[in-house]
Specification:
six-stranded mixed beta sheet, alpha/beta, about 300 residues, single chain, five-stranded parallel beta sheet
Length: about 300
């Protein structure tokens, strides 16, 4: 009987904020995908030494170590593109939190590099693994949309670190595209009161059938993290999502998908569809940013 342990991929986590900490927790959990991954260390700009017995290693060591085969990029968005390029160049597989880059051209270049190196480049989209999204997907199937809106409110985010609101809020755009197909931009405006750390981005989109969709990101002090949606169909309306349960282990579910890719268990068709969706959302985000800046 073959009792050989399954091959493990050595992993380093870059950035140990909220996402990075959750990733480190999941990498050490007793789950099937975690059994194929070996957390070697983490990289941080801060001097942290060890976290729960996991050692801090330098970026240089992470890039040059033959032990490290996979990098989880969990740093702030503005540094994603640079880190992905470094690790792909070093011949490592990459999992990155969204947005992968803050430009469409950057993402296209990185995907071409991943293909050239024969490595997996996976952009996390945990919002598609949420209970609310599963509920919405079921509700929307087979219905004819007349119009819809999605408003997201939250505390302020620094644009220098997290990108223009269309990029830092790309998970909302991903919901709309995943529910209603490819969208086109009609118009976009950005209202800012920098001294008050307030901003409101209002985007008008339309589906291929010319149905209007509005997407609003509103951020400012005292604004709670909330999502309000309203979809009107020929057969009735959907106003906000009922409480459909806790989003359990969404980062772990994402890790499972990544491991399936490492093992070659995801079809070319699925990979191509995912890449097309991600690039479409990044292209829209970039178009929104240009539109808002041209109005200033």
């Amino acid at each position: 009987m073959n009792t050989e342990p399954k091959r493990k991929f050595g992993v380093v986590v870059v950035g140990v904020g909220r996402a990075g900490s959750l990733r480190m927790r999941d990498l050490r959990s007793p789950h099937e995908s975690s059994a194929l991954l070996n957390l070697i260390g983490f990289v941080s700009r801060r001097e942290l030494g060890n976290i729960d017995g996991v050692r801090q290693i330098s970026l240089e060591d992470a890039l040059s170590s033959p032990e490290v085969e996979v990098a989880y990029i969990c740093s702030e968005s503005a540094s994603h593109e640079h880190h992905i390029r470094q690790f792909l160049d070093a011949g490592k597989h990459v999992l990155v939190e969204y947005p992968m880059t803050l430009s469409l051209a950057g993402a296209q270049e990185l995907w071409a590099l991943a293909e050239q190196k024969g490595k997996i480049l996976h952009e996390e989209h945990v919002e598609l693994l949420m209970e609310e999204f599963a509920f919405l997907k079921k509700e929307v199937v087979g219905k004819e949309l007349l119009k819809g809106s999605l408003l997201f409110t939250a505390a302020p985010l620094e644009e220098e670190r997290f990108g223009f609101p269309a990029f830092s809020g790309i998970s909302r755009l991903t919901w709309l595209v995943s529910l209603f197909g490819e969208l086109s931009l009609v118009s976009a405006t950005l209202e800012e009161r920098k001294e008050e750390k307030y901003m409101k981005m209002t985007v008008s989109l339309e589906t291929k059938n010319k149905c209007p969709l509005s997407w609003i990101e509103e951020k400012g002090p005292g604004l709670k993290r909330n999502r309000y949606l309203s979809f009107h169909f020929k057969s009735g309306s959907l106003e906000n999502v009922p409480n459909v349960g806790i989003n359990k282990n969404i980062f772990l579910k994402d890790q499972n998908i990544f491991v399936q890719k490492l093992l070659g268990q995801v079809s070319e068709k699925e990979l191509a569809a995912e890449k097309k969706r991600i690039l479409h959302c990044l292209a829209l985000a970039e178009e929104i940013q240009k539109f808002c800046h041209s109005k200033k």
